[in-house]
Specification:
alpha/beta; Phosphoglycerate_Mutase; hydrolase; Probable phosphoglycerate mutase; His_Pase_superF_clade-1
Length: about 180
């Protein structure tokens, strides 16, 4: 099995350091350039993408002509509930944000999901693709990909903040 995990390119809300969750923010001009730089670099394997605009647009910009992109809601970012659209600077001053930073594995976003909910979604999708295909590409989101990596590495979700995953990051996963 071989796959590429790709975080969507930069959005206008990434630039503003705003929690996006399920918000459908467009790519920034820089994000469009980031995604276009992936064109011709990745193999023409089946692409599974979050159904959110920022991930789909990233995939569309690097996909080869005729390469199929399959949207899948299970690849969405974590649902951050009432925190969607709030700035990280503002949230950083709250005790709930501090709780999330200290113990992410037990935290549930207010009116949203927990990291375990997210991990269950993306891991289920990943193994479904792996059963059908030897090679594929996933375009998803920061916490979604990081939660999948925690699962694949056997790490606790409490280690999720130690993983750096910038916009348009490409990870290559290979397993014999």
């Amino acid at each position: 099995m071989e796959c590429y995990l790709i975080r969507h390119a930069e959005t206008v809300l990434n630039r503003k350091k705003v929690l996006q969750g399920w918000a459908d923010a467009p790519l920034s001009d820089n994000g469009i350039i980031q995604a276009m730089k992936l064109s011709g670099v990745l193999p023409p394997w089946p692409i599974f993408s979050s159904d959110l605009k920022r991930a789909l647009h990233t995939a569309e910009l690097f996909a080869a002509p005729g390469q199929r992109i399959q949207p899948d809601a299970r690849l969405r970012e974590i649902h951050v509930g009432v925190w969607q659209g709030l700035s990280k600077d503002r949230l950083g001053q709250t005790s709930l944000w501090q709780q999330y930073q200290r113990s992410p594995s037990t935290f549930r976003f207010p009116d949203g999901e927990s990291l375990k909910d997210l991990q269950n979604r993306i891991v289920g999708a990943f193994y479904e693709y792996q059963e059908r295909l030897d090679r594929f590409i996933i375009v998803s989101h920061r916490l979604a990909i990081k939660s999948l990596l925690c699962h694949l590495q056997g790490w606790s979700l409490d280690q999720i903040h130690s993983i750096d995953l910038p916009n348009a990051a490409v990870l290559h996963i290979y397993h014999d």
